[in-house]
Design a protein that fits this description.
Blueprint lengths: L1 H17 L4 H6 L2 H8 L7 E2 L6 E7 L2 E8 L4 E4 L3 H12 L11 E5 L6 E6 L2 E6 L4 E5 L1 H7 L9 E2 L5 E6 L2 E6 L6 E2 L21 E2 L4 E2 L6 E7 L5 E6 L7 E6 L10 E8 L4 E5 L8 E4 L12 E5 L6 E5 L1
Antiparallel strand pairs: 1-2, 2-3, 3-4, 5-6, 6-7, 7-8, 9-10, 10-11, 10-13, 11-12, 14-15, 15-18, 16-17, 18-19, 20-21, 21-22
Length: 318
C-alpha cells in the first residue's frame, strides 16, 4: 500500500512539473524578441507616377535604406546618404534623429520625375533632389503643390480626383467633383454584408468604403464578404480597463454549414453603372483578389477562388 501511495505521489509531482510553462524560453522565440535579428522580411515597391521606375525602403540592422530602381536598365541606387540627410534635417529642424529609427513620412515623388520627392519630418515639409542632394524646406504654399488639402478620412478619391466614394449605413455613395449632391450606388448593404470597411457594426456616420480604384478612374471594384449566417466566437480581453471585456467576432468552424461567401462588384462612376460579376463555381468557395497593378494596368482584375476542401483553385481574370 505504501508503494502504491508513493508511486501515485511521484506521478502527480512529475506531471505537475512537466506541465509548468517555461515563459523565459518561450520569450526567446517570440516575435518581439526575434524581430531585432531579422528586421525586414518583405519588400513593398511603389511605382513613381509617369515613369517606369519604382522605389522601396528596407530595414537593416543599421537603420532604413531607401532605394530607387530602374527595372529597364536593371539598376538601383540609394535615394540619399542617410548620415547626410539626417545632418541636413537636424540643421533645418533643430531636432536630433537616431539613425536606426529614422524614417521619412508622406514620401511622394514629383509627377513624372523619379529624382525629386517631397516628404514631412519634424512637423515641416521638405523637397529633395536625388541628383544634386539638395534639401529644400517648403513653405505652406509650396507644400500645397505636393500635398492636397486635407479631406475627410472616409472619402476615397479616384486617381484623377474627379470622383470620391464613401459608405453610409453599409452602402456606397458617389460624389462628382462638380456636384454637391451624392448619388447612392447601392441599397442592399447591411451589417456583416457591407460595402464599408466597418463591416461588423452599425453607424450613423460616414465610413471608409471597401473599394479599390483602377488607375484610369473609370471603374472601381468591391469584393464583398457575406458573414451574416456565420456563428460567433468570443475572446476575453484581459487587458481592458477597468475590467476584462468580452469580444465577439464571426468565425466558421470546420464542418459547420455556413462559412464566409463572396460577391464581386464593378462600378462605373461616369454612368453610375453597377455590375455584379458571376464568380460562382465551388460551393462555399474562398475568393481573394490578387495584388495586381491596377494603377498601370486598369483593364484587368485578377482573383483566385478556392474550394472549401482546398483541393481545387482557379486563377481568374475579369
Amino acid at each position: 500500500m505504501k508503494k502504491i501511495l508513493f508511486f501515485a505521489f511521484f506521478c502527480c509531482a512529475f506531471f505537475s512539473y512537466a506541465q509548468k510553462a517555461d515563459l523565459k524560453n518561450c520569450y526567446k522565440y517570440s516575435e518581439e524578441n526575434l524581430k531585432k535579428y531579422y528586421h525586414s522580411l518583405s519588400v513593398f515597391p511603389s511605382w513613381i507616377s509617369g515613369t517606369d521606375m519604382f522605389w522601396y525602403n528596407y530595414i537593416t540592422p543599421g537603420g532604413a535604406k531607401y532605394y530607387l530602381v530602374n527595372p529597364v536598365r536593371k539598376k538601383k541606387l540609394e535615394m540619399f546618404d542617410m548620415e547626410d540627410m539626417i545632418g541636413k534635417l537636424t540643421q533645418a529642424t533643430g531636432i536630433s534623429f537616431n539613425i536606426k529609427d529614422f524614417r521619412l513620412g508622406g514620401l511622394k515623388f514629383d509627377e513624372g520625375d523619379p529624382y525629386c520627392f517631397s516628404f514631412s519630418k519634424g512637423g515641416l515639409d521638405f523637397h529633395y533632389n536625388i541628383r544634386t542632394r539638395e534639401l529644400k524646406k517648403l513653405d505652406p504654399e509650396q507644400a500645397c503643390r505636393f500635398y492636397p488639402p486635407a479631406s475627410p478620412y472616409w472619402l476615397k478619391f479616384s486617381p484623377d480626383s474627379s470622383y470620391s466614394i464613401y459608405a453610409y449605413r453599409h452602402n456606397l455613395y458617389l460624389l462628382n467633383r462638380q456636384d454637391t449632391v451624392p448619388v447612392q450606388l447601392t441599397t442592399d448593404g447591411e451589417k456583416y454584408y457591407s460595402y464599408s470597411n466597418q463591416k461588423d457594426s452599425d453607424s450613423d456616420k460616414n465610413t471608409t468604403p471597401n473599394i479599390v480604384w483602377a488607375g484610369n478612374s473609370k471603374v472601381f471594384y468591391c469584393l464583398r464578404q457575406d458573414r451574416r449566417k456565420v456563428e460567433n466566437c468570443w475572446v476575453v480581453d484581459n487587458l481592458a480597463e477597468p475590467r476584462p471585456k468580452l469580444r465577439t467576432y464571426k468565425f466558421p468552424m470546420p464542418g459547420e454549414k455556413y462559412v464566409f461567401t463572396y460577391d464581386l462588384h464593378l462600378f462605373y462612376p461616369e454612368t453610375c453603372q453597377h455590375i455584379v460579376v458571376n464568380i460562382d463555381k465551388y460551393p462555399n468557395q474562398e475568393v481573394r483578389i490578387v495584388a495586381s497593378d491596377l494603377e498601370n494596368c486598369p483593364e484587368d482584375l485578377y482573383f483566385t477562388r478556392k474550394s472549401r476542401t482546398c483541393d481545387k483553385m482557379d486563377l481568374c481574370r475579369v
